[in-house]
Amino acid sequence: MERKEFRDLATPAEAHEAIRSLSLEAGIERVPLAEARGRVLVARMDAELDVPGFDRASLDGYALRAPDTFGADEADPATLELVGAVHAGEEPGVTVGTGEAVEISTGAVMPDGADAMVPVERTDEDGETVLVRTSVAPGDNVMFAGADVAAGERALGPGTRLTPREIGLLSALGIDEVPVRARPRVGIISTGDELVRPGGDLESARGEIYDVNSYTIAAGVEEAGGEAVVYPHAGDEQAEMERLLRQAADECDLVLSSGSTSASAVDVIYRVIEEQGELLLHGVSVKPGKPMLVGRLEGGSSNDPAGEASSGSVDGEGSSVAGGNSAYVGLPGYPVSAMMVFRTFVAPALREAAGLPEPETATRTGRLAREERSEQGRHRLVPVGITTDGDGSTLVYPVDKGSGATTSLAEADGVVEVDADTDYLEAGETVEVRLFSPDSRPPTLFGVGEDDPTMNRILDRLEHPRYLAIGSRPALRRLRDGVPDVAVVAGPLERTVDHVELGSWTREWGLIVPPGNPGDVQGVFDLLDRDLRFVNRTTDSGLRTSFDATLETTADRRGSSRRELASAIAGYDIGLRAHESPARRVIAGEADVALGLRETATHLGLEFVPIDEQSVRVLVAPDRTDKPGVSELESAVSQMNQ
Amino acid sequence: MERKEFRDLATPAEAHEAIRSLSLEAGIERVPLAEARGRVLVARMDAELDVPGFDRASLDGYALRAPDTFGADEADPATLELVGAVHAGEEPGVTVGTGEAVEISTGAVMPDGADAMVPVERTDEDGETVLVRTSVAPGDNVMFAGADVAAGERALGPGTRLTPREIGLLSALGIDEVPVRARPRVGIISTGDELVRPGGDLESARGEIYDVNSYTIAAGVEEAGGEAVVYPHAGDEQAEMERLLRQAADECDLVLSSGSTSASAVDVIYRVIEEQGELLLHGVSVKPGKPMLVGRLEGGSSNDPAGEASSGSVDGEGSSVAGGNSAYVGLPGYPVSAMMVFRTFVAPALREAAGLPEPETATRTGRLAREERSEQGRHRLVPVGITTDGDGSTLVYPVDKGSGATTSLAEADGVVEVDADTDYLEAGETVEVRLFSPDSRPPTLFGVGEDDPTMNRILDRLEHPRYLAIGSRPALRRLRDGVPDVAVVAGPLERTVDHVELGSWTREWGLIVPPGNPGDVQGVFDLLDRDLRFVNRTTDSGLRTSFDATLETTADRRGSSRRELASAIAGYDIGLRAHESPARRVIAGEADVALGLRETATHLGLEFVPIDEQSVRVLVAPDRTDKPGVSELESAVSQMNQ
User: Fold this and answer.
1) Which partner for A596 in A403, A509, A600, B148 could form a disulfide, CB atoms 3.0-4.6 Å apart?
2) What is the mean pLDDT of residues A507-523?
């Protein structure tokens, strides 16, 4: 198969232009008023009736002829004859003549003959006559028909987003159904044999991982005003992928695929686009996102077994809303990259098609916490996190874990664009962050450090914390760099940084073994002298440094070196990141002994062989001590210790 | 029936406290991940598995033993034997020994024996051997199992709002259902015989009006994170109202009623609360909102014909989510008052129950455009509109049309609270507006003036205009007061204000008569000399002033006065607000001749008797000429004139 040649990568501006040139608009639909909140009107709504539709009493009181009250006051009331009553919701059965009054309730129709009303507070009544202790002018306390909204008036214009207030206006006009922009339908197709939909069974031995992008991009689509359609997972089987792609093109206004970077997936997409559409660009000079594909797909394939496509409309000019004609954009596979490309290139076009403005909270300006160097000559999308400093102003920090890490998701709040001509952003420079969600807000507390069960419980009590369990040493480094508020550290530390200690607690650590301790493990020497499979923690963990210190002492006693002892332990180099991970290997039968906490052993129903206690300390950056989230943490720590 | 006595009005703080004391929380529900966007987690989510679950190749290339590459470079590549291949999604069927390499694709499982990989770009392969032109260290280009997320790690905390990013994290962990706070169910009951649900038929002669509050408050409830249940309209029939109230108390966490100020409605509410609940307060010292009721209702009434209540659980301690126990708040009946009280007292409690923070855009700070005097001694909720001045900073202006006017809805964006001790807010003072909706934004253009069909078409082309058709004279007054950007005026003006004229067009006006002109009306003199029923426009309208000027001229010719001529016209004093309104009276057969525009006559299929032309001029406040919305208007006006 020959491929259309795209010798040069497109510029980001050309990519925006290509996506804008595709029609993502989904037409018009009529929705009941009760479901219209957040939707966008497509037509002007004029008042078809007067509001109120009749001359209406504004208060409870008496309807009368104003001239009959002229000159009346407290001292010299006018005396009128009571000739009837009108209540709200009934047609007046009486006419008001000179010298007469009619009892009337708020909202009731003014009877013929009356031209004003007096509130009940300024009157006395004995069943036959009404004493009026004030004078009124014609029209007083009456809302005339059409005074509020007059028939024929322009009420709401096209493009209006319907909030409760507009729903109120439409209600007043009696309108119970409104023409609004249909939400663009966006089909999401994930490919790749290794992907399993969340909730499914994972075979790690086969290299399977959960599909992150489908639901994530679907949520992004809905946030941008679209309607997401997640198609079944296609695997790498070409025929099935082709069938899904054609079906999605039939049914949607836009088809997004992610991770279709394998040669066979690209082949299918090329084939379908060549046969039934047009490829607008392949490859954009932006990192990440270089292999982005943008094109147009025509639906109506006879391959479609579901029969959604009307037969004979192969030219795609059907009458369906989706029109059998769909835009196509291929996104990167790595989740943060996919979100960045979606947010930068696709979401603005979707919002425009849906008629929605970008929410004011969708971008945030802040100060770059540390310098950022870029490869020259390439437009870059930099994933960043946001937090606040001691003064409450926004700090922006690049998140760089390698785009393969889904944990970047925990830390990245949005994207900063750096253009091809900029190779260096200074620390302190003001940057604009396009947030992944307008609902994103900076954490109330940003902590880094040990993975610790007590800390986890403390975090559960805080308002909106961000905590990265990266271990003690990286935590100190980050605290020094000025981004997080607190570092939670444990075990011997080689160095320290300026801090204020906010609180601490102790944890008991040792060796975790299967229930009943079948290997009869008594202490560290068993690891050295016997053939046991051990699992360690990472070198960044406080448990690991305490364990190494214990080995050091043992080595001193034995006249050996720590290094030598370590090499005698099978599995010493297997350093796992979370506090429960080694113990879970014991449960899985993959290890005999794990480094861990007494609490972990208890929690997982395993047996614990104590070695020592260590202190877990919460260190606060000196300029963050007054931050509300730090005070909240301080009281949570002290409550936890009670 | 005796009523619990509330001698003193409660303070606003006591009202907040009373509502907070009612439990609006709706418990926990489990939702599929695909529907979890915007929901709030109720429990901590820990990782139950390692991500990735296996040692994973980060690139396409070759898996090998790192020591085999030590010292290799472009000039002196290492030569390894190719022993197999592993693709993403398959279990490795091969082991890597010393001197061996295995082809591996991105995302595939590292085969046993290999501890690193080299990217394909740094290699050459001939099918049997692989030349490696670089040296790698153990672990290079490999993401180890659990390196991204380790089993047992805390992933998300309770109270986390789920945005696309969190949905990505949960997807990575394979979680497809999450425990979230259930949305508080809020029942909405509207009472009053005069109310008709939008879409129904209105009998104006009976004083019926459309029910504005039900859908408006429902939309507000949903915006605050609740689920709205709009109950059928109850009328004023006590038994039916009582039945609905009990049913709503059974089914909901909160019941809101509005406009239940009629004595009979209050009686029913009192009776139900006395029998099955507790009244916490009646009457709050706040304007509007004084008659606010706050209480607790217990469901489970045997009166409930729908049978939703389990029999025998009259004490309300059932096991249903709503618990048969509901909070109750009575809102004012006038729409803007109801919205203000809802927004001020109810929405914060609902958000708290739903676990949602107040959106950052839900309040807005601005400068008060004109002074505001308050009655002393009463806490006030002041409805305000927002707009921007020439510098783009926010201007806040009180909207005061009397609380009965639903058109306040078109202008009011939110509420400013003024406490009882403050009787005067100075112009220019900074105030905080609690917006009716976090989606509210200031209009891009704020215009006031003539109701004119050309202007309506121009407005349809603007981004987000606000236009109040209040007529020429009030428009000039408002322009002078510094709030709107433009005034659209027509007809003779007594005075003018500083302005820049942005553009103008002409409109032909005259008399509108039924098709075929059955009365053979030729001009103004027919009105004077014959017995015709006429309908006029309001004195604020430019058509009215031009018509009066014509009468003046005629009077001069006849040696009479305008006043005298006017009194000879039956219906001269019937001044209607919108440009189409008089013509619609002709259609309805209620008038023979209407003042109006040629365009209106054509549009409505009526006949037109021309009198004159008048110019409609768009006047801009001198400090607003640079506002983007004004430039947008200018080009729309000039396009309209082409």
Assistant:
1) A600
2) 96
